[in-house]
Amino acid sequence: MLRAAYIRFKQLLPRSLRNALSGINQRLFARRTIERKYGAWFDVDWRKKFRTMPDADWIAAYDAVWQNHHNNCTDETDAAMIIAALGGAPHQGLETNTERKHHVQSVLEVGCGAGSLAIAMAEAGFRVTCVDVSSEALRKAAERAQTLGLQGEREITWQQGFAEALPFADKSFDAITCCHTLEHVRDLETTVRELKRVARKRIVVVVPRQEYRLYAENYHTQFFSTPEQLSSAFGLPRSETRELNYVGRDNEFQDEALLYIGFVE
Ligand SMILES: C[S@@+](CC[C@H](N)C(=O)[O-])C[C@H]1O[C@@H](n2cnc3c(N)ncnc32)[C@H](O)[C@@H]1O
Q1: What is the CATH number of the domain that holds 124?
Q2: Which tens digits make up the pLDDT trace of 48-68?
Q3: Which of the ends of the chain has fewer CB neighbours closer than 10 A, N or C?
Q4: Nearest Cα to 122, choosing from 106, 110, 136, 137?
C-alpha cells in the first residue's frame, strides 16, 4: 500500500528529480535496505561481479531466486498485448493458405520464468517452446502448465539453456518472445545475435525503462532508457517500439517499460 503510494508519487515528479532522489537513496540506504529485505540468498553485489561469473554460479543464483521469490512480471494484459504483437493468435480470422503461411505459429519464449506468457500463448494456439537458465523456474512453469491441462497439441516444450547460446538450429521458430529477460543477460550483443539467428519472422521484446543503478532489488545487467537504444541493439531494418506504463496496474512490475517488435523477414 505504502509502496504503491510512493511509486505513484514518484511518477508525478520530473525525471531529473526522480533521478536525484534515486541517487541519494543509492548512496545512503539502498545496499542495507536490500540486504535486510531479502536476506542471504540475494546477492546484493551482483552488478559488481556478473561479467566474470561462471555459468554454474549464474544458474545457482537464479535457482535461488525462484526458490525464494515468486517473480511474475508478465501478467494477463501483457500476454494479450504480446499475442497482438505476434500478429494475433494462429488461425484467427485467416482465410487463405497464403495468409496462414505468413502467420506466426511457433514461438520460442526466452527466459520464461514461471511460464505465464508461455501458458497464455499455448492456450491461444501457438506451438510454444521455452528456455530459461533456471531448472527451478522450468519446474514451476511445467507444473503450472500440467495443472492447466496443456497436453497434446497444446503441450509446451521446456529446455534449460542460456539466451547467449540458444540450443536450437538457425530459423527454428516463427517468432521469439523475450519479456522482462533481456535486461538480465550477461552479454547483450551475443543474446541479440542469438535471438535473430533462431527467428524466422518476428522478435517481440519487453524491457523495463531504466537508468543504471549499482544496487537494486533485481539482477538486471542491461539498461534501456530510450526506445532508440532497443531498436539500435537489434538493428533490424523494420521495427516498432512502444512506450508502456505499468504503474497502478495489478502487476509485480511497477514502472515504465518498452515494447519492441522487430520484423526479421
Ligand atoms: C524477470 S524473469 C522474467 C520471466 C518471464 N519472462 C516473465 O515475464 O514473467 C527473468 C528470467 O530470465 C532468466 N534468465 C536470467 N538470465 C538468463 C540468461 N542468460 N538466459 C536465459 N534466461 C535467463 C531467469 O531465470 C528468469 O526466469
Answers
A1: 3.40.50.150
A2: 999 999 999 999 999 999 999
A3: N
A4: 106
